[in-house]
UniProtKB/TrEMBL annotation, chains A, B:
DNA-binding region: 45-64
Protein name: Mycofactocin system transcriptional regulator
Transmembrane segments: none
Compositional bias annotation for Polar residues: 1-10
Length: 208, 208
DNA sequence: ATACTAATGACACTCAGTGCCGAATGGAAG
DNA sequence: CTTCCATTCGGCACTGAGTGTCATTAGTAT
């Protein structure tokens, strides 16, 4: 689903069989984010969105399983990217450095997409309903981290240590995001990098 | 709120003014957990619960803001306990040890409550709707950790490092819970303690 | 034209959660 | 005992998210 609001216009693909789709994930997401920005998330109903998109209500729920899914773009694609990036890192790079680098890369966006990304994350981290729903996406994200960590440690992805590490990485990322959203001129990637380093200090096995 | 299904019976309190409550948080939670256990969470409607409790539907939502809140008992009380426990620890105890001890204590329950607690956590960590909703409760929990860490580090509770630490603690706890639920004969407190130690090893500033 | 395919969208339905308001209940004051 | 008052109850109607069903529409291929 959804590559981008711009790349996947209705019918831009090569001819297919059957009736042409009435819209795209990207277009719906784009329209919805706009409405959320104008009126707020809770104040925007699914009916508002489908009216703005000119599609039927039932059709909407074929594109997105829930209203809560709208702010998430093609998350699966990003997960795949991170998985590949992790796999490409040299074996002798310490685990925590590998994770740090991969998480930083995961959150790198083209300069012109940053404002949209910021607004998306502002929603995801401030609207209770979205905060709650996001947990389910974070679970997939943690799984990618846990699989890599398990591979490095000779464990299974559902063992304690890989999972604990994955949770920690998620927490570091989200703590960095909170800072980023609180400061207009902050640099997200630097904050994430910083968070990883700081945890090393606090949690170092040599001293607390 | 709920202290316990047994301790707070309707009218057990000292005389009050006005009509007597028809039930208690504890009783509702107890009845609901029972139904969830029998038929599953999604398969149990609020109507089922109020029918079993013999109260009106509207009354239910005065006791609990949502169906998702039912599995959480008196969480606020537990948070207070943890806050006090943290404050009581000696100042020269390293931060990560203080956090480890407090988190372990937070999850200590009387032997006879463990089966109920297990069932509660099984629900909270496996039902998507509850997983999502739990995020909101975890936020309060993290705040307690972050406040303590901030105090120790001379930061504010909403600064990067305290928040990152709080996220890490939450992650460690939940990773331990996942292991606990996967193994019938596992010891929760030992798993939590173990998770904290393992993160020290992986994340140690000396080596990765 | 006809057949086939895939997507749309209308309708009716379930369920969670809310606002409103009168009814029920029990203690306190006369 | 009666009246007053505080407080809770619970019915009703409503909104809004999400689902199952199914006829319809709009494309491609023959």
């Amino acid at each position: 689903m959804t590559v981008d609001a711009t790349t996947q216009t209705p019918g831009a693909d090569r001819p297919r069989i059957g009736r042409a789709p009435a819209t795209t994930h990207g277009e719906l997401s784009h329209i919805a984010l706009q409405l959320f920005h104008e009126r707020g998330f809770e104040e925007t109903t699914v009916d508002d969105i489908v009216r703005a998109a000119g599609i039927g209500r039932r059709t909407f729920f074929r594109y997105y399983r829930s209203k809560n899914d709208l702010p998430w773009g093609d998350f699966d694609h990003l997960l795949d990217q991170m998985r590949r990036h992790l796999a490409s890192l040299p074996d002798d790079l310490p685990l925590r450095d590998a994770l740090r680098l991969a998480v930083v890369e995961f959150n790198r966006f083209p300069t012109d997409e940053i404002p949209v990304h910021r607004e998306r994350m502002r929603l995801l981290l401030s609207v209770p309903s979205l905060m709650a729903h996001s947990t389910l996406r974070y679970t997939e994200w943690r799984q990618v981290i846990a699989e890599f960590a398990a591979d490095r440690l000779g464990d299974h992805a559902d063992d304690l240590e890989p999972r604990a590490i994955a949770w920690a990485c998620l927490g570091l990322s989200l703590a960095a995001y909170e800072q980023w959203l609180a400061n207009d001129d902050a640099d997200l990637l630097h904050l994430i990098d910083d968070a990883f380093h700081r945890l090393s200090t606090t949690w170092g096995s040599t001293r607390g």
